[in-house]
Specification:
Radius of gyration: 19 Å
Oligomer: single chain
GO molecular function, one term: metal ion binding
Organism: Piptocephalis cylindrospora
Largest sheet: 11 strands, mixed
Distance between the termini: 29 Å
Shape: globular
Number of strands: 11
Keywords: Glycosidase, Hydrolase, Lyase, Manganese, Metal-binding
GO cellular component, one term: cytoplasm
Bound molecules: pseudouridine-5'-monophosphate, manganese (II) ion
Protein name: Indigoidine synthase A like protein-domain-containing protein
Length: 337
């Protein structure tokens, strides 16, 4: 006699087998409008694991030259794990999946002169032949269309402070609701309203998972935000299984895998960072800074008020997320064999 649970897993195995079979049968097809770096194209053609990376973090998230150096080091960490990094940006109106080191250097030097590119900006920049550095939302859109389901970064955008009246809710959150890409990050910075950010992610149907056993949702510079994650997983293997269920089910929504900053790097930041965030928030209010400039303004002020200490923590956690993202991508590949 067939038990209910075994018939469920048989049905699921058929479903998984079919969808993987279909993918293998047709192979990966490059997007006709995208330019893939040779390294990324080879990996996708061979069905090898790839991790997407954003470029706003380079132009608007860190100062030059640390931005370029961090980007190079993060890519190297991913390669050392046996995974291919794909940094995504728009250059002269073309979507690039995987950048050369001179392209990263160019973006890093331009900094905020490059357009911070969320979903709404993509078609416009392409039509006008301009350059754009993609945010979490912009990178998710393009990674998904390029065939890359896993993306590592520092922190996601969220509901801003007083978001309930100014309606400043990052496009990252709605993108997570509509695009099946898993974003590996260190949570959301306390420049944001983290409680409302978690509420909004639930509204959007986004799975939010803290990796490593802690129940706390991390707040970027600190391992805990004071809010609990709606769910947890032990390790990259379990995260990969969750991603595969999301794929098999065809839910079409994104996932957040929140990795707390390593203990030693949290200690380095200290209470100074929170004081700097509070001061930066007050300055933004006094100056009336709004819209897409507020996040870069706050990031800059926090970096300079802590005299680079927050930047060191920032860089450390991005590298850690890259390591975890690569492990998740590897585990997903193994499970698909
Ligand atoms: N948070 C950071 N570093 C960053 C960003 C956020 O700690 O670089 C960037 C990311 O690209 C993110 C974007 O997607 O800011 C969110 O901007 P906004 O709040 O305007 O949606
Ligand atoms: Mn905004």
């Amino acid at each position: 006699p067939i038990s209910l649970s075994s018939s469920f897993s048989t049905a699921r195995a058929i479903l998984v087998g079919r969808s993987i079979g279909r993918r293998y049968q047709h192979g990966w097809t490059p997007h006709p409008h995208f330019i893939y770096s040779p390294e990324v194209k080879a990996a996708l053609e061979a069905d090898k694991p790839v991790v997407a990376l954003e470029s706003t973090i380079i132009t608007h998230g860190m100062p030059f030259p640390q931005n370029v150096q961090t980007s190079n080091e993060v890519e190297e960490i991913i390669r050392e794990a046996g995974v291919t990094p794909a940094t995504i940006a728009i250059l002269s109106g073309k979507v690039h999946i995987g950048l050369s080191s001179s392209e990263v250097q160019g973006l890093g030097q331009r900094g905020k002169a490059a357009t911070k590119t969320s979903r709404r900006d993509i078609s416009l920049l392409c039509a006008q032949g301009k350059d754009g550095a993609t945010t979490v939302s912009g990178t998710m859109v393009l990674a998904h269309r390029a065939g890359i389901p896993i993306f590592a970064t520092g922190g996601i955008g969220g509901v801003h402070r007083e978001g309930e009246s100014n309606m400043d809710v990052s496009a990252d959150l709605t993108e997570l609701g509509r695009t099946p890409v898993a974003v590996v990050c260190a949570g959301a910075k306390s420049i944001l309203d983290i409680g409302r950010t978690l509420e909004y992610l639930e509204t959007q149907g986004v799975s939010v998972v803290t990796v490593g056993g802690s129940k706390d949702f991390p707040a970027f510079f600190t391992r805990s935000s004071g809010f609990q994650s709606p769910s947890t997983c032990q390790d990259p293997e379990e995260a990969a299984k969750m991603i595969m269920e999301n794929e098999v089910m065809g839910l079409g929504s994104g996932m957040v895998f929140a990795v707390p900053i390593p203990q030693e790097d949290e200690a380095a930041g200290g209470g100074k960072v929170q004081a700097a965030i509070d001061q930066a928030l007050q300055e933004a209010k006094d100056k009336g800074i709004q819209g897409s400039s507020i996040t870069p303004f706050l990031l800059d002020r926090v970096t300079s008020l802590t005299k680079g200490e927050s930047l060191r923590a920032n860089i450390a956690l991005i590298k850690n997320n890259a390591r975890v993202g690569a492990s998740i991508a590897l585990a997903r590949s193994k499970n698909r064999q």
